[in-house]
Amino acid sequence: MTITRTTKGRDSNLAATNIPLGTTITVTEIPQFGATTSATSTTLAGTLANSTATANLTLPIGTGTAVVLMAQATFNLQLAGLDLPTFNGEKFVQVKVGATMGGSSTLTYISESGREVPANEVGPLVYAKLEGSGVRR
Questions:
Q1: Which residue of 9, 43, 96, 123 could cross-link 61, Cys pair, CB 3.0 to 4.6 Å?
Q2: Would you say the C-alpha torsion 117, 121, 125, 128 has a positive or negative sign?
Q3: 136: pLDDT confidence band, cut at 50, 70 and 90?
Q4: Could you give the CA distance from residue 5 to residue 12 in angstroms, rounded to a whole number?
Q5: How far is CA 133 from CA 59, 94, 126, in A?
């Protein structure tokens, strides 16, 4: 998932790969000074291989204030057509994909009990199932 922003500073353009269409993305703005704000994007549209959405935030442009933009999408594995093996006795039911503007994406699995497990802690069997499905970590 990637984030870019328009020159007018209101819209955050989001691009996603292998995240189910119809998923919304929460975009959070963390300014150097001032309050953190969040907005929910339009639903992802396009194709599974290349989808886009837009979130509207008022970003401080030209004020000299540094801003970190973060995006996060969570979706059900069943919606993505995935059935992953259990991990430490728990079944994964959701995936959370996160990104920061200019940074790489992160992947976290969420179990039935709500436990969040970063992808780098999950074994190769889960990776093999994901790679075969087209989802990339």
A1: 9
A2: positive
A3: very low
A4: 4
A5: 37, 15, 11
Q: What letters, b where the CB count within 10 A reaches 16 and e where it falls short, cover 109-124? A: bbbeeeeebebeebee
Report the relative pairing of strands 26-31 and 50-56 from DSSP bridges. Answer: unpaired
Domain count, the chain: 1
What does the angle CA 85 – CA 71 – CA 32 come to, to the nearest 5 degrees?
135
- The Cα–Cα gap between 88 and 75 comes to 21
Structure tokens at 59: 């970003």
pLDDT in tens, 69-128: 889 999 988 766 666 767 888 888 888 999 888 888 888 989 999 999 888 887 665 555
> In this structure, what token pair is assigned to residue 5?
């922003």
Q: How far is CA 53 from the centre of its chain?
A: 12
For residues 131 and 30, give the distance between their C-alpha atoms in angstroms, rounded to a whole number.
Answer: 33
Q: What count of Cα atoms within 13 Å lies in the side-chain half-sphere of residue 78?
A: 4
pTM of the model: 0.77
Domain that holds residue 74: 2-133
